[in-house]
TrEMBL record, chain A:
Organism of derivation: Oikopleura dioica (Tunicate)
Highest rank taxon of the organism: Eukaryota
Keywords: Protein transport, Transport
Sequence similarity: Belongs to the VPS25 family.
Protein name as it appears in the record: Vacuolar protein-sorting-associated protein 25
Pfam families per record: ESCRT-II
TrEMBL record, chain B:
UniProt key word Transport: yes
Organism: Oikopleura dioica (Tunicate)
Source species taxonomy: Eukaryota, Metazoa, Chordata, Tunicata, Appendicularia
Protein's name in the database: Oidioi.mRNA.OKI2018_I69.XSR.g15086.t1.cds
InterPro entries on file: Snf7_fam
Keyword annotations of the record: Endosome, Membrane, Protein transport, Transport
Length: 170, 187
């Protein structure tokens, strides 16, 4: 994190870089900044134009604000890496998770196996706030994000969502 | 399955209510202290009364939660028992089907046949292992040896004639051996 402090006050950091390698480093740095920011503010639903105006993407000291294309590129990369998912077709809002959805899915399924919850119904609330999941990486993760991880398991036929608030593991 | 989910949803709802009440209680405590420090004793008392009401609500919520959890557990246990019984019924059916093929009379018949076969084999063994020639041969060979070593023994051929009953002795031996053989086979 300390290495990123200089970037925040480095004007070119706020414009999408043309050189492929530089751009990759720039986007990686922005990605971790965004994840860190969402963890601190404990927000998971992010409005792209709103976050662009926030202190994260704006530095008044050097009079810089990230370009729209840069913000879009950062979030596209987060989506690609499995840390975020678009909430609308116009890609103006996304749901961000500090853990990738696939690692959450793996942790959820592992928990279900270890705790004997295979063939059992659980509520999404239980998986996020329940007493049985303390210490797991998905503890206190918003239910919305847990549902996306469960949908990945559903694709692998390891779970089935029941309505909007239940799940059964296989 | 639907019933368990419904109960669990209700349980979550109660947990949320509990969190809310906990939160409210904490706020009341702080407020009461504030009022006391300002000297508003009456107001503090009112707030404390409110806090007590919340306490009571929390207690009943706790009881409800426990009841729901018990019911969830009961449903799950009964479901498991039902599965066990149905698995055992399936097993029992399979066992019965097998018994229609494998009944005691059939087994007895097979075992009798096996015993007969073993007996026959033993008889054959005894017959086949009986030495037919060897004793005669040996006598002949010994006689020849004697003839070679000592020239003064013309009576030797006579003993050869006196021994036709030797094979009978060997027969008795094989008969003695056979019951010993039979025992481990039957066991």
């Amino acid at each position: 994190m300390s290495g990123q402090a200089w970037q925040v006050s480095f004007p070119p950091f706020y414009t999408l870089q043309k050189n492929e390698e530089t751009r990759k480093k720039q986007l990686d740095a922005w990605s971790s900044l965004v994840i860190e920011h969402s963890r601190k503010t404990s927000t998971s639903t992010i409005d792209l134009s709103e976050i662009r105006r926030s202190v994260l993407f704006t530095n008044s000291k050097i009079e810089r604000q990230a370009s729209i294309e840069l913000v879009e590129a950062v979030f596209s990369q987060l989506v690609q890496k499995g840390n975020a998912i678009w909430k609308d077709k116009s890609k103006s809002k996304c749901l961000l998770s500090s853990q990738t959805f696939s690692s959450l899915a793996a942790a959820l399924y592992n928990w279900a196996q270890m705790s004997g919850h295979i063939n059992q119904v659980c509520t999404i609330f239980e998986l996020s706030q329940g007493e049985e999941i303390s210490g797991e990486i998905f503890q206190n993760v918003p239910e919305e994000i847990i549902i996306i991880a469960l949908k990945l398991l559903q694709k692998e036929r390891k779970a089935e969502l029941i309505g909007t608030d239940g799940v059964k593991f296989f | 399955m639907k019933a368990v989910l419904g109960l669990k949803k209700q349980r979550d709802e109660l947990r949320r209510a509990q969190i809310r009440a906990d939160h409210e209680e904490k706020i009341m405590k702080v407020k009461a202290k504030e009022c006391l420090s300002k000297g508003q004793k009456d107001k503090a008392l009112k707030i404390l009364r409110r806090k007590k009401a919340i306490d009571k609500r929390l207690e009943t919520t706790d009881n409800h939660l426990e009841n729901i959890q018990t019911m969830i557990d009961q449903i799950q246990t009964t479901k498991e028992q039902q599965q066990i019984v149905s698995a055992m019924a399936t097993g029992n059916k399979a066992l019965k089907e097998l018994h229609t093929v494998l009944n005691p009379e059939y087994v007895e018949g097979v075992m009798d046949e096996v015993a007969e076969g073993v007996e026959n084999q033993q008889e054959i063994d005894a017959l086949i292992s009986r030495t037919v020639f060897s004793s005669d041969d040996e006598e002949e060979l010994e006689a020849e040896l004697d003839a070679l070593t000592s020239v003064d023994l013309p009576t030797v051929p006579k003993t050869e004639i006196d021994l036709p009953n030797v094979p009978m002795g060997e027969d008795e031996e094989t008969e003695k051996a056979s019951p010993a053989k039979q025992e481990p086979i039957l066991a």
